[in-house]
Amino acid sequence: MFYSLIKFIARFSLLFFFRRKIICGKSLRHLKGPAIIAANHPNSLMDAVVIGCCCTQKVYFTIRSDMFNNKLFKILLDKLNGIPIYRLSEEKDKLRENFRTIERCKEILKNNGIIIIFAEGQTLHDWNLKPIKSGISKIVRHAITDVNLKSKLAVVPVGLTYSDYNHPGKTIVIQTGDSLYPGLIDSQLSDGLWKQNLNTTLFKKLEPLVPCMRSEKKENIRAWQIVIKSLNRTTICSRIYKLHITGKKIEQSAATPALHTIARQYTVTGNKSFYKSLSLFGLAVVPGITGLLLNGLYYFPLSRWVYHKTKKSIFYDALLCGLITITYPAYILLTAILLHFTTPVHFLFWLPIFPFTGWCTAYAYTLFAEVKNYLCIPVSEKKFLQDLII
Asked: How far apart are CA 219 and CA 225, in angstroms?
């Protein structure tokens, strides 16, 4: 019950976090267990939230064990089907607990469950695939000692690409690749070679799903984010795969313009897109201002507190999304009651007004940024972006 409720609210919260969600490949909505979703891991707990909300079936997910040390977090993670993974870098004195974790994963899969495992074993805010760690191969190797799992277990590669790690209104690309069936790998191989074979095969399946852009230059990163935020829901998957080519092109560029006039990396290409954004902004601006007034007292102090709490860490998105998921319904309820008694407007009217106008605020801001940026971008920078944008 708790899991279903949080999942429902989280799906709603993600409407504010993601301006666009682009899904390529086989939908996770229809995925049935036993299955392991093997994903890259660029954005902490947000990755598990995103993938979990894509699935209809209840999912479990692995997470570093030290997250369970906080009593409140432990209660929440247990309720949300978190499975602790013990690592040498965090709790080396508890490494033997991984045997229990591996056995638990096997039992979940035997009951036709779905487990999300982040194959890279680490979180970094970037846009490239890291080597596959040994955790997933250990879990899979033990799981397929069961006869039924050996013939049925599927490992589904999923690539996540975020346009931004610090602000709502981002774009996310979720790409699902062809499933891997580990029971088909030669069982006569030694344990070490078998796991190496699995990791190598999985890496090859994930590689086309995770764009490669390793540059650390601010100009290149800014151009890369503009490209991702310029994608739209109608972009076909064959074009999405061009992200890889575009990332390398930006990375290898020796003369990327500063692009410092582009706020939050939003822009449009061509007059047609400009006038479309301008028209939509005209429609969204009034409810957007209303949403700013109704939700600003809640959102800005909360986001500021989360920023200071998670400064220089990878948990900003996850903590902010989690807190909004848990506390925003309470804010709406309490404020609607207050307005019911202080204005002539009925309580039931206020309940949908808060989230609707809040969404309009986020949408109007991105449209305003697109319009403003398009007007301010120098001609030379427009040409550079037109050559890049997919």
From this structure: 10
